[in-house]
Amino acid sequence: MVQERNASKDPVGDERLLLELYRRMLRLFYLEETVRRFVRQNKCSFHASSRGHEKLQIACSMVLKSGKDWFFPYYREKALMVGLGMPLKDIFLHMLSRKGDPSGEGRNMSEHFSSKPLRIVSPTACTGTQFLAAVGMAKAIRYDGRDDIVYVSSGEGATSEGEFFEALNQAQRERLPVLFVIQNNGYAISVPQSQQTSSEIHLIARGFGMDAFRVDGTRFTEMYHTLEPKIAEMRKGSGPVLVEGMVVRLESHSSSDDQSKYRTEEQMEEVRRHDPILHTELRLQQMQLLTPEQVAVYRKEAEREVAEAADLADSMPPPDAERVMVHIYSPVGPAILERAPRMLGEQPITMVDAINHGLREEMERNEKIIIWGEDVQDPKGGVFGVTRGLTERFSGTRVFNSPLAEASIIGVAQGMAIGGYKPVVEIQFGDYSWPAFMQMRNEVSTLRWRSAGVWSCPMVVRIAVGGYIHGGPFHSQCVEALYAHTPGWLIAFPSSAGDAKGLIKTACRLDDPVLFLEHKGLYRQVYTKGMEPDPDYLIPFGRARVVREGTDLSVISWGRAVHMVSQALTKLGTSAPSVDLIDLRTIVPLDEETVLESIRKTGKALIVHEDSVFMGFGAELAARIADGAFEYLDAPVKRLGALDSFVPFAANLEAAVLPTVEGIEAAIREMAAY
Ligand SMILES: Cc1ncc(C[n+]2csc(CCOP(=O)(O)OP(=O)(O)O)c2C)c(N)n1
């Protein structure tokens, strides 16, 4: 270790801080140089250098508390990792995607660091999605009454994403402890900031009423002096802060980019004048804190440290390919005692009541369950009344309205789930789940897997779906097929009150994200009513219900279509074939065995669903039947669903597109005659 020369007081009041900054920046420098070499050697396929951002990132690591505060970083933050104390070997294991990579065992792209002990939550490559999860984590911290701070960062380009605005809005409205750190290097790949916005990032945040300011991110003293007191205030509950750090990008956007195509040599010359490391090195010498000889020793020491870590990581083999499917789902399921339910009361209940009672019972059992969504709070209790009475029973802290922003509903739920809560959120209509699709498809679904089981976000997303309510093209969609195509989610789609209660209760106890699809045409239907199962009755996911047994034809269905099949059979009366009617109840996991067993008995399969036929979930079922029961089939597998159209508004047009009882009747007759 170098002996530092005694010198005059530095501007921060503690010269050790400057020396520590320098030491960490040097580590970063050699780290980036070594990664560059690994890229040239084809050992690393994605490198986004943090050179030019390092002072801002390390300053943040020095004003925040590593291991206590929470970090939702982006892909250009190696310097932050060094600053927070991530072991250099771990950084290389991740950059090289080697066995033992603690950021995700080689599943996540390099530059996406994660660490449970350092509270660095595994990021995705999506620009801007992280803002909402950070807000959710800050909410969890607020609920716990702790004084941790949540750091979330991005470049200036990513602030054009809607999630950024949604996050500013919610963090400020709830005065949550989120530190937004926007690293403005002037470019989003090749796009200059002038093509992103006519405003300035900190001014945008001020528009939300947030405490926001701009600093020169290449100067330590200014940043440190500005940030330190702000952080202290934030710990006392002053609310969110946004800092726009003006930095430079010294390298190309990434190893896949060549900035010489859009930045001139003169521009680069100017940028290099702001090199944060050279600046500090010069300053330390001007302040007589280090001699040129000591600078050389500091450099050598950092270079050696980095080289050792790089060699160690480089000696590791690639990750185990056999484990690639591990951690898509949790290995832990709820303990379910399989038995017939004990029925409560004298009167049958509707599906709305069943879900409401299920939620009520689970909230009583688990105080971590928090419900939010558009209009869910009392007195309205949801546009379909499913959550009615729950705010009154459990308070507005546990059941409340969200802003009208679906990406926020899901993104914030992810963060709160990571923070140990169990969000049970509502998306008012399946048709409006699409603003949240990025969160559902890339964030929530992948978290457990991409972090190799280190992070998870179990939650329930209730979504009202389905047509036959004259809701037109934007209040009628059946969304199961699009979501079933995304691993990581479990999907329930009940057709009766009793099943709805048993399944929502299980959903609330599962350790995975669950999509709970509720057909709004069934909510208050007389034919979905049933006696109420007791509070201990849980239905396992992946267990279909055989609605009626028969020998001639298997009909596989779910949701409202199950009732339409029953109605068609009633209409057929004595001329009906003997039908095995299977209600899947859950789409994921799929009870393939019950389906195949039925077909082995009947030799014929008709799949009936409400969603359109092309690429509907019936296509998957038909393929599985072909794979698993081909030798038993006496007829081609038939699918019946909506036309490959949108659902129109006028009653006669709606009837022309969605499946009809008459159509099902005809299909059953046709199959029986085959
Ligand atoms: C949602 C999304 N859209 C596009 C991309 C592709 N992309 C990756 S980085 C990037 C530019 C981001 O620039 P900025 O936010 O300024 O950060 P910087 O890389 O400059 O640090 C783009 C367009 C992405 N990863 N995610």
Topology at a glance:
Layout (H helix, E strand, L loop, with lengths): L14 H26 L13 H10 L6 E3 L5 H7 L3 H8 L34 H15 L5 E6 L6 H12 L4 E7 L2 E2 L2 E2 L8 H7 L3 E6 L3 H16 L5 E6 L18 H8 L3 H11 L5 H23 L28 E7 L1 H15 L3 E5 L16 H5 L4 E3 L4 H13 L3 E6 L9 H8 L2 H4 L9 E6 L14 H5 L5 E3 L4 H13 L4 E6 L10 E4 L11 E4 L4 E5 L2 H13 L6 E5 L2 E3 L3 H11 L2 E8 L4 H13 L8 E5 L8 H7 L3 H13 L1
Parallel strand pairs: 1-2, 2-3, 3-7, 6-7, 9-10, 9-11, 11-12, 12-14, 13-14, 17-18, 17-20, 20-21
Antiparallel strand pairs: 4-5, 8-15, 13-19, 16-18
Helix pairs in contact: 1-2, 1-3, 1-10, 1-11, 2-3, 2-8, 4-11, 5-6, 5-14, 12-18, 14-15, 19-23, 20-21
This protein binds thiamine diphosphate.
Thiamine diphosphate binds next to strand 2 and strand 4.
Describe the structure.
Strands 10-9-11-12-14-13-19 form a seven-stranded mixed β-sheet, with helices on both faces. Strands 1-2-3-7-6 form a five-stranded parallel β-sheet, with helices on both faces. A five-stranded mixed β-sheet has the order 16-18-17-20-21, with helices on both faces. It is α/β, with parallel strands linked by helices and 674 residues long. Mean pLDDT is 96; it is low at 1-12. It has three domains: 15-251 and 289-313, Thiamin diphosphate (ThDP)-binding fold, Pyr/PP domains (Rossmann fold, 3-Layer(aba) Sandwich), CATH 3.40.50; 344-533, Rossmann fold (3-Layer(aba) Sandwich), CATH 3.40.50.970; 546-673, Rossmann fold (3-Layer(aba) Sandwich). Helix 4 packs across helix 11 (292-314), helix 5 (130-144) crosses helix 14 (406-418) and helix 20 (592-602) crosses helix 21 (617-629). The protein is elongated. The chain has 23 helices and 21 strands. The site of thiamine diphosphate (TPP) has 15 residues, from strand 2 and strand 4.
